[in-house]
Amino acid sequence: MKASAFVYPWDVNGDPRAPRHLAELGIHQVTLASAYHSTRALTPRHPRHRVVTAEHAAVLYPPGDRWAGRTLRPYPAGAWAPEADAYGEAAAALADAGLETHTWVVLAHNSRLGAEHPDTSVVNAYGDRYPWAPCIAQPATRAYLVDLAAEAAVRPGARGTELESLGWYGLAHLHAHDKTGGVGLGDAGQYLMSLCFCPDCRAGYAGHGLDPDALAAAVRAALEPVWQGAPSDGGWPAVEKLLGDTTATATRAWRDATARTLQEEAVAAVRAEAPDGFQVLLHADPVSYHCGANAGVDPAHILSVADGVVVPCTGGAGLLTPFAEQGRAGAVLAANLTVVSGMGGSPGTLADDTARARDLGATELRLYHAGLASDADLAQVRSALGGR
Predict the structure, then answer these.
(1) In this predicted model, what pLDDT tens digit does every residue of 57-116 receive, in sequence order?
(2) DSSP label at residue 77
(3) Which of 10, 33, 72, 232 has an alpha carbon within 20 to 30 A of 85's alpha carbon?
(4) Element (H, E) at 91
C-alpha cells in the first residue's frame, strides 16, 4: 500500500540528513506543507532548532502576481521559514532522495485573516466572531480560497495535492491556551455553535425560507440547557429535536450547498492549472454537517469531484466505510493514521491498523507526522513499512 508522510519545509531545510531519513522509512511520497496555519511544532532531529513557532497562517513559497491589488491575499511566512521559497527548497531535496512530493494546502483556517479582516469570519448566534474560521459563503472569501487552492496546490514538481479545511470551520479549534472544554457540547451543540450569522449566511437562510433573527433566537434557546449541563449528544437527530425538523433541514441545505459548490470550484481551479495526471484529494469527514480540518462532505458527491479523500483513522477506520461503499473505481481512499505517540498515535500498531484500514477499503496510507515524531516512533514506522 502506497504510504505518504506529512512534513513541514522546516523539517527538511537546513537538515541535509532529513530527506534520506524519510526515504528510509519505507514511504513512497511526502505530503509537504505549502500553505499552512499558525502552529508551534517540535523538530526533534533538526541540527539548528528544536521548536518552530509559525506565528500566523502563511504560504511557504513566494505568492504570485494574481494577488496584486486584492484586499484578501495570502501572507508570506516569517522567520520560521526564512528561505525565499521554503516549500520549493524542501521539495527539491526530497526529490533528490527519490521521494514523490504532493502539496499540503490548508484553506478555510486562518486566524490572521480573521483578525485583520473581521468581516470575513464566521459569526455565531450570539454575535461572537471566530477569527480562525473564514465564512465560506462570502463571495470575496470564496474567491480568495479558490485562488489560494490553485496556487498553493500546483507547485513546481508536485505530483498532486491534499486540500485541508475546504469546507466549514466552526467552534472546535485548537487555540492557544484553549478554555472551551468546560461544557460538553457534543455533535449537536457543536453544530449549533458553528452556524454562521454573517450577512451572507443570513441571506442564505432567508433563501431557504427561514427568518434569520428567529433562527438565531431558536439556536440560543436550544443551547440554553446545554450551558446548564444537559447533554447534547445524539448527532443529527438531536439537532432536529432542538431546532425542529424543518428548520434544521433548511440550515443544513444552505450549508451543504455552500460547501459543495466551493469544493467544486476549488478542485476545478486546481485542475485548470495542473499538469495531466495531477492528483487532487480532500481531507474529509463523511458526515456533511461536521466542521473542521476534515471537511464534512457527501461521499458520493466528493468522489465525483476529486480523485479521492484522506480520512482520519486514528482510533478506528470506520469513517472509511461511507466512502468505500460508493464503489468508485480508481478513487483514492487514504487512511490517515497518527504515528506520534505523544499526540495520541500508536506507531507500534501501525501494521495492524493498516491491515484493518485496507480491509475497510483504504487504498493508500497517510502518516501524521514524520517531522513531529520521535526517533523511537519512526523506528516503529520503519519496521511496519519494511523500511531500511
Answers:
(1) 999 999 999 999 999 999 999 999 999 999 999 999 999 999 999 999 999 999 999 999
(2) P
(3) 72
(4) helix 86-96
